[in-house]
Amino acid sequence: MSEKILPPWASQIPKGAFISYEQTYKIGEYFDRFHKENFSGMDYYFYDPTEHGFTKDKKYPVLIFMHGFSNALVGEVCINYAGAEFYSKEEYQKTLGGAYILVPLANEYKDKEGNCLGSWDNSYLPKIHDLICNFEKTFADGRISKRVVFGNSSGATMCFKLASAYPDFFNILVPIGGNQIPGNEIFDIYEKNKIRIFYAIGIHDEFVSFEEVIKPRLERISKIKGSRVFTPEWVYNGDGGIASINFGMEMGQHCLVNPMHCNLMFDNGKPMEATLPQGITGWLHDALN
User: Fold this and answer.
1) What is the CA radius of gyration of the chain?
2) For 246-249, which contacts have Cβ atoms below 8 Å and span 24 or more sequence positions?
3) pLDDT of 255-268, one tens digit each?
4) pTM above the 0.70 mark?
């Protein structure tokens, strides 16, 4: 940003902390590892681990990334915004033992007034399910072991909705910054189907009331076997600063997907969360195995 706007929560940050206005990583460095396809009117990007040194004689998980509101409008940059790009990196792939990556795109567009329309809603649920099935058959040739759904912001809501609609289809959920958390009856279904959850949201999220909406639901999520909750006091960038992203509205704390995308690691290699020394990829490795 050319002009650094002081975020509304600036007076609350710890003494000695500083505000970081930009991510420290490069966007688009790994886009050439992804292919773009269309199924039944929906575009999607995908990464194939067998094109990057992994053998074709074993099965791999598929990581499905549901993007946030309006992110489909930015083209291939959506791969990054959804938090998928770095999962094609060698170190992430090595930790996971290889993984397919799938990024479905909502059919978003802008009307004459500039409003974004066509974003995720319930009508997409069967379309996404069919897209995944077709992808697995067409490009993975049945080499899928487990299905992991990541979701950022409105994509986190879709993450929960997909597993609620198809609880015997998905294995692991990683919703980030979502406020529409299912009721206990849905979590009972998740447990019956052995679905694990890594739920992540910042305490100072600008769009969600943590105390009123999120906090009362966390205990139930934590009780699901193999699941965990990650609610950092502050969302950080790689340089160790507290993240501020202003698009006419402050949303730095809403963008927890950025440090999650960076495996919850600072640029100096120190983990952002002491109980996750190997980051989110380490947790995924254990959950997948």
Assistant:
1) 18
2) 246/1, 246/5, 246/7, 249/206
3) 999 999 999 999 99
4) yes
